[in-house]
Amino acid sequence: MPSLAAAKLPFAPALRLRLGTRGGVARTKSNTGLIVNVVNEKPSHRAGAALARKALFLVLLTLLTQIGGIAFLATIGVSYVAKISGRLARLAVFLSLYAAATVAAHQVAPLFGRIPLPCFSGNSPLKLQSPLYCVLNRNYVTGDLLRVADALSGHMAGAFPGTVTLALDANFPFLDGFPLLPHLSHSDGRKLDIAFYYRGKAALNGQTRSPIGYFAFEQASAGAPLPCDGRNDLLTFRWNLRFLQPLFADWHLDEERTKAAVQWLSSDGRKMGVEKIFIEPHLAKRLAVDNGIVRFQGCRAARHDDHIHFQVAE
């Protein structure tokens, strides 16, 4: 209930006219001419909602980009000190600080053992599938993993001229153990996802069925091993996303090149330190690449019939 802060009305049925609000206090005037200040309690609710929104943005930016949360906190501080109140102005401050932090991470991360995959790689046979991975700071790997990725892409380009190997999610720039959601293991610089190779009427290079390289799942054939069939886990990153599948390009998995990549990782890559490769069991069987280091990632992890995951030993 609003409280009367300035005066008490002389009689109950007095007519009040709203004059406006100042600093959370609503000013009204009764038909007796008496000005009455009515405390408006809504600003405290609005302040609480604003704080909750800021906390949510902080968490989301940190989970998506690692350093975005720091840039967001810095934006709040700069805006307060400089008395910047407009939304567009604050957005410009945030984007400037985030861009500066991203550039700084490229320079500082190697001191902690992580190297960014190049955002602009020219004629290299190894490219990031989308600039989004650079923008979100999800393109960091150890030196050992970078050497394997470069060697794999060079092998694929030599065996299949013109082939471009596309990198997807890698790791964040800092802190071992910091999760790169929705992945369960990309937390130490030693893991990298690469996109499948595809065919239309001919071999496709530098293209994926999905705009980000993920979620365009290969469907299992009849009788193929499906270890997660029939499970309904509540806590899982294994999303089937059936509603998205008709939206992706109608291209086919290039089985020859995809098999060649897995075989190289299992042989030459293994000599360079590759210790695990994750793809779905039905694809391992289909491509005839089931061996000691090709494994199933489990039913709570993301599906691996839209990309290849590999990792190097410590």
Notes on the structure:
Helix content is 33%, strand content 17%. The longest helix has 24 residues, at 42-65. The strands form five sheets. Strands 8-14-12-13 form a four-stranded mixed sheet. A three-stranded antiparallel sheet has the order 1-2-3, with no helix packed on it. It has helices spanning 42-65, 68-82, 87-108, 132-135, 143-159, 255-266, 268-271, 281-287; strands at residues 16-22, 25-30, 35-39, 115-116, 126-128, 140-141, 165-167, 191-195, 198-199, 203-204, 252-253, 274-278, 294-295, 307-312. It has 314 residues and is α+β, with helices and mostly antiparallel strands. The protein has eight helices and 14 strands. The radius of gyration is 28 Å and the shape is globular. It has three domains: 1-40, no CATH class; 51-109, no CATH class; 115-312, Muramoyl-pentapeptide Carboxypeptidase, domain 2 (2-Layer Sandwich). Strand 2 (25-30) and strand 3 form a beta hairpin.
Number of strands: 14
Compute the separation of the termini in Å: 64 Å
Give the spatial strand order of the biggest sheet: 8-14-12-13
Q: What value does the average pLDDT take?
A: 87
- Shape designation: globular
- Provide the domain count: 3
Looking at this protein, list some descriptive labels:
single chain; 14 strands; Muramoyl-pentapeptide Carboxypeptidase, domain 2; 314 residues; four-stranded mixed sheet; disordered N terminus; 8 helices; 17% strand; alpha+beta; three-stranded antiparallel sheet
